[in-house]
Amino acid sequence: MDFAPSDRRLLALKILIAGGFGVGKTTLVSSCSEIMPLQTEEYLTNASMGTDDTTGVEAKNATTVVMDFGRISISDDLVLYLFGTPGQDRFWFLWDELALGALGAVVVADTRRLADCFPSVDYFERRGTPFLVAVNCFNGEQRHSPAKVRDALDLDPGVPVILCDARDRESGKEVFVTLIEHVMARTRHRAAAV
Ligand SMILES: Nc1nc2c(ncn2[C@@H]2O[C@H](COP(=O)(O)OP(=O)(O)OP(=O)(O)O)[C@@H](O)[C@H]2O)c(=O)[nH]1
Ligand SMILES: [Mg+2]
After folding, report:
1. Which residues form the pocket of ligand 1, taking CB atoms under 6 Å from any ligand atom?
2. What is the distance in A from the centroid of ligand 1 to the CA of 5?
3. Measured in Å, how far apart are the chain's first and last C-alpha atoms?
4. Are 78 and 13 in contact (CB under 8 A)?
5. Which residues contact 49 (CB under 8 A, 6 or more apart)?
6. Residue 1 above 60 pLDDT?
7. What does pTM read for this prediction?
8. Looking at the predicted structure, is the pLDDT value of residue 7 above 70?
9. Residue of 74, 73, 94 lying closest to 84 (CA atoms)
């Protein structure tokens, strides 16, 4: 049976974008968002030297202090609301609020500083939130294969690991499509087990 356009239900899902400091979360939300993204960037100052490690992202002069917000349509009837988290641990008190109602999460990783995404992986594993790891290939470099990243992070076999360029809209969209497929597969698997 065909549905007239007015009968279509629009599904809107909340997705978190997490990961360590300076891995490209704000860049990913901005490049993918089809609306003007909300950003809460504040300049890095001398006061944060020694705390905020900008190794590898030396051009970075600002950091997210509350959240990023954007929206991407995956299809005519599926829209994702993207909530980017702050990367620094001094803002972790915001995470529980941001995570409320999130269907899934993207953990952005920079293989030059892979350990920085451990807290995000740990957070979503503990909450039982489905997530994937998106390795942001700074300057197009692929330093480690997805399999090596999976091993290093000790991820469950079902957790997808994909390479991306956070600055590229199509690449970012692929990340979100993979996440939705992962969430759906996990939901089907759980339903079949009941
Ligand atoms: N060369 C290159 N630079 C990138 C890439 N992704 C992000 N950047 C740059 O890296 C810096 C960090 O990006 P952000 O998007 O601010 O990182 P973030 O994860 O939101 O950072 P915090 O909110 O401070 O934790 C910025 O200067 C970006 O322009 C990339 O794929 N390649
Ligand atoms: Mg940011």
Report:
1. 21-27, 57, 59-60, 63-64, 86-87, 136, 138-139, 165-167
2. 39
3. 30
4. yes
5. none
6. no
7. 0.92
8. no
9. 94
